[in-house]
TrEMBL record:
Organism: Marinithermofilum abyssi
Matching SUPFAM superfamilies: S-adenosyl-L-methionine-dependent methyltransferases
GO molecular function annotation: tRNA (adenine(22)-N1)-methyltransferase activity
Xref: Gene3D superfamilies: 1.10.287.1890, Vaccinia Virus protein VP39
The entry's keywords: Coiled coil
Coiled-coil region: 204-253
Keyword Coiled coil part of the UniProt annotation: yes
Protein name: tRNA (Adenine(22)-N(1))-methyltransferase
TM helices/strands, residue ranges: none
Pfam families: TrmK
Cited InterPro entries: SAM-dependent_MTases_sf, TrmK
Amino acid sequence: MRSGPGEAVFERDGQLLSARLAAIAERVPSGHVTADIGADHALLLIALAKQGRISKGIAGELNTGPFQNAWNRVKRSRVDHLVEVRQGDGLAVLSKGEAETVVIAGMGGSLIASILDKGESRLQGVKRLILQPNNSGDRVRTWLANRGWELTDETLVEEGGILYEVLTAEPGNGDAPYEGSPFSKDRMVQLGPLLCKSRHPLLIKKVEEEIESRKRVLEQLEAGRTAEAERRKQEMKKELREWEKVMTWLSEEPI
């Protein structure tokens, strides 16, 4: 049974996944050796294993507590013949060429980019990255574009009133998703080029949040009287105008 956006999602085997994790699971190719870096309780890999969707799962955790929790849950779920839990720092839990799909989810975009950068040599042979930053998605998109990973899919999921981005990338032309975009590449890195091209139904809410965030910063800057405060004020006003242009574009009927 599948629930509405933001609600819990029950898979066929009774394994409970959130809407966010379900969106990630849907993007894992069947039969792949799949690694989940920062797997928490390993719910994603357990669900995929029970559905027969993966040939092998590797759950990576840095700290002993989460590592033990993941191992215990995998054992209780009786999928330890398919899912291996390893303790280590980021992609260091993988051997080169071992995984076909790598998932890194539920952490800040800057940390995800750092994990990818630090463990880039372990991405040899990886066919798909599925990345879910809690914030700073622009950092992740920038890393992908600069390292020859092409965005093939972007979606937004609302859970508990919070919007989450789920980005899928495969080896290719990192600049391709930005070609023919209605705004600058810098803006599209923040907005999401494929979200924009598809006019994702939740994109307006994302843009509204960007606008409100800048309005709050501008209000705080209004009290400043220094040259630096004035510079920041003008900078923020320009940013606000640019995001309002995006909102106007999104509100128009596509031709």
